């Protein structure tokens, strides 16, 4: 127990970023992720790093583009409305093929919305983070420990594939306190021959740019980028299965919704209902194969979300609509209760898979 | 709770002052301790109020314990915007009741770190002038930014500077949340003693979750059990 400390999710991800070699943080305060900036403001000066409170979210993401161009590990963080402001920069990061970690500790929306937890930026993160054809690797933690683990993972994958990793947390994950172990062993480093590090008159200058006026070149780069995405979909899918061996019903949930669902599944099992869970840890790439395989075994799926039903579409796509997919949701900062999830499981049993 | 309080009295049985303030590093457990302290004081005092001066973090608040405070007859003084999704730092005029009513026994939950203690500065002069207060530093060895005595004292001095009140005692609330073992509490005593030696402040109580009392009884002085009323909805298992 001696190696564990008690941390808020926001603090834990900040410390993990520093341990993963990030020495540049740019952000702007917004509840419920403000502790990331507060923590970085205390810690970065002590590790010879840079903490800078930018004049806006847009400025912060552009500072990320600048530092990433030089090959350094860099991050920014915000919550839903602030992430919308960063959207242009996310597209530019993709267009420049630059690695970065961007954290979204989601709150209820749309608009300014509220300050309580939400998962309603799922579409934004997995589908439409900005203009143009691109993806981000989207990681969804469900504990403070995973805030740490996935921050390390996010930096690693970003460097490996030269793209943005988004840590898609929610207000609960940011605010809750749990004991964590920060030690993640060896941190991989990657050669970055493309980085702007000064030619020393020994090589041709590197250029980082997303403006490509020649359509043939722009088309080629898009196809090349999507070949990398295809590799990520093959190699980097992460998920956790819970009691799926004999399951007749399958809950699909991530983040805080998965924690509530676990309690509901245990209770349903006490009532004799064979239900399990597939918890996507990467939301992009989405764990399509395991869900499609489950669709041949279970009678129905229940997608539990803090949104009006966004991931539910990916569940339907992944399972080719072979089985009914029910939605159990709360929004606006409300969190599904164990009873909400139990009711949905019971409803799935009632229809028995024949909708 | 009453039977527990006989064996484990507040502040080790020493007489409470009219105003008890809890401050300390962000996330060290001030709010839960403040709520349990107010409920314990209500057993012997007619008029007890708890004031939430935390204008920084809108997520964990005394208002979460409103039901228990109401039932016990403890007056809750809190921003009208607390838990309302209105992200506005504000304190109610009612907060002055702590200063103006000498019959009131008050518990003050100060916000975390120096930033959270800024709001205290506005009430400090009057509290110090009356000189019937206890300003308690809540410490947790397992919080990463206050793992050493030196770091904890640095935070303490920043709070005193911002809040304009000197600390008078220490509450050792070293814990790892749900995973806290008796061993974790025992091994935090050296840390608490170090902070006490550095500051000259007494350790007025060691707060632990009630399940740990049997294992720690007799080994740690001035134990005080916490009920942990303030939690987020998902953790309450509803």
Let me know the average pLDDT of chain B.
Answer: 88
Structure summary, number of beta strands of chain B: 8
| Oligomeric assembly | heterodimer
Strand order of the largest sheet of chain B: 3-2-4-1-5-6-7-8
The SSE string of chain B, one letter per element, is: HEHEHEHEHHEHEHHEHE
Shape of chain A: globular
How many domains comprise the coordinates of chain A?
Answer: 2
Report, as a whole number of angstroms, the end-to-end distance of chain B. 23 Å
- Find the count of extended strands of chain A (DSSP E, 2+ residues): 14
Biggest sheet details of chain B? 8 strands, parallel
Low-pLDDT segments, ≥5 res of chain A: none
Structure description:
The complex is a heterodimer of chains A (355) and B (238). A seven-stranded mixed beta sheet of chain A has the order 3-2-4-5-7-6-12, with helices on both faces. A five-stranded mixed beta sheet of chain A has the order 9-11-10-13-14, with helices on both faces. In chain A, strands 1-8 form a two-stranded antiparallel sheet. Chain A has helices at residues 9-19, 34-43, 57-69, 80-95, 122-126, 144-161, 171-175, 215-235, 255-270, 288-295, 311-318, 338-351, and strands at residues 4-8, 24-27, 50-53, 74-78, 100-106, 137-139, 164-170, 177-181, 239-242, 249-253, 275-280, 282-284, 300-305, 325-329. Chain A contains twelve helices and 14 strands. With 355 residues, chain A is an alpha/beta fold. Chain A is globular. In chain A, 41% of the residues lie in helices and 19% in strands. The termini of chain A are far apart. In chain A, α1 packs parallel to α6 (144-161), α3 (57-69) runs parallel beside α4 (80-95) and α9 (255-270) crosses α12. Chain A has two domains: 5-199 and 211-235, Rossmann fold (3-Layer(aba) Sandwich), CATH 3.40.50; 240-351, 3-Layer(aba) Sandwich (Rossmann fold), CATH 3.40.50. Chain B has 238 residues and is an alpha/beta fold. Chain B contains ten helices and eight strands. Chain B has helices at 2-7, 30-41, 66-72, 97-100, 113-117, 121-130, 149-163, 182-186, 189-199, 213-216; strands at 19-24, 48-52, 75-77, 105-109, 133-139, 169-172, 203-209, 223-226. An eight-stranded parallel beta sheet of chain B has the order 3-2-4-1-5-6-7-8, with helices on both faces. In chain B, α7 crosses α9. At the A-B interface, β1, α2, α7, β8 and α9 of A face loops of B.
């Amino acid at each position: 127990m001696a190696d564990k400390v008690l941390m808020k999710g926001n603090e834990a991800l900040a410390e993990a970023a520093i341990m993963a070699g990030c020495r540049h943080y740019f952000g702007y305060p917004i509840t419920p992720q403000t502790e990331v900036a507060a923590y970085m403001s205390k810690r970065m000066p002590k590790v010879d790093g840079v903490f800078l409170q930018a004049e806006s979210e847009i400025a912060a993401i552009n500072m990320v583009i600048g530092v990433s161009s030089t090959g350094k590990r860099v991050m920014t963080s915000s919550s839903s409305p602030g992430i919308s402001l960063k959207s242009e920069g996310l597209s530019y990061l993709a267009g420049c093929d630059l690695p970065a970690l961007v954290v979204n500790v989601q709150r209820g929306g749309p608009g300014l919305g509220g300050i309580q937890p939400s998962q309603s930026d799922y579409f934004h993160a997995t589908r439409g983070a900005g203009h143009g054809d691109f993806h981000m690797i989207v990681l969804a933690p469900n504990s403070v420990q995973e805030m740490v683990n996935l921050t390390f993972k996010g930096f690693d994958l970003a460097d490996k594939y030269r793209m943005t990793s988004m840590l898609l947390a929610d207000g609960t994950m940011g605010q809750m306190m749990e004991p964590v172990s920060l030690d993640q062993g060896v941190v991989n480093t990657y050669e970055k021959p493309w980085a702007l590090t000064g030619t020393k008159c020994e090589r041709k200058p590197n250029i980082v740019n997303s403006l490509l006026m020649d359509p043939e070149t722009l088309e080629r780069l898009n196809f090349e980028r999507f070949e990398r995405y295809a590799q990520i979909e093959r190699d980097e899918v992460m998920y956790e299965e819970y009691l799926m061996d004999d399951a007749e019903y399958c809950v699909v949930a991530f983040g805080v919704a998965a924690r509530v669902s676990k309690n509901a599944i245990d209770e349903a099992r006490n009532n004799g209902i064979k239900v399990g869970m597939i918890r996507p840890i990467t939301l992009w790439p989405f764990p399509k194969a395991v869900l499609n395989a489950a669709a041949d075994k279970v009678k129905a799926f229940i997608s539990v979300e803090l949104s009006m039903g966004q991931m539910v579409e990916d569940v339907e796509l992944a399972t080719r609509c072979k089985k009914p997919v029910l939605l159990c949701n709360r929004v606006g900062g409300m969190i599904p209760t164990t009873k909400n999830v139990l009711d949905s499981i019971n409803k799935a049993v009632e229809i028995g898979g024949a909708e | 709770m009453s039977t527990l309080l006989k064996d484990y009295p507040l502040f080790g049985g020493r007489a409470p002052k009219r105003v008890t303030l809890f401050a300390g590093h962000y996330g060290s457990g001030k709010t839960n301790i403040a709520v349990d302290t107010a409920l314990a004081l209500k057993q012997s005092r007619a008029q007890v109020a708890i004031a939430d001066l935390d204008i920084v973090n809108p997520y964990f608040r005394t208002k979460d314990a409103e039901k228990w405070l109401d039932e016990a007859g403890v007056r809750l003084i809190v921003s009208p915007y607390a838990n309302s999704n209105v992200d506005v730092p504000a304190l109610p005029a009612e907060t002055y009741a702590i200063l103006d009513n000498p019959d009131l026994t008050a518990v003050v939950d100060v916000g975390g770190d120096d930033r959270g203690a800024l709001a205290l500065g506005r009430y400090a002069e009057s509290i110090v002038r009356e000189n019937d207060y206890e300003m308690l530093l809540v410490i947790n060895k397992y919080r990463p930014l206050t793992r050493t005595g030196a770091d904890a004292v640095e935070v303490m001095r920043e709070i005193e500077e911002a809040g304009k009140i000197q600390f008078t005692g220490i509450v050792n609330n070293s814990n790892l949340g749900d995973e806290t073992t008796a061993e974790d509490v025992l091994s935090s005593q050296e840390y608490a003693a170090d902070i006490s030696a550095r500051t000259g402040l007494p350790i007025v109580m060691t707060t632990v979750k009630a399940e740990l009392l049997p294992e720690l009884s007799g080994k740690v002085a001035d134990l005080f059990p916490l009920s942990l009323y303030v939690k987020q909805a998902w953790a309450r298992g509803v």
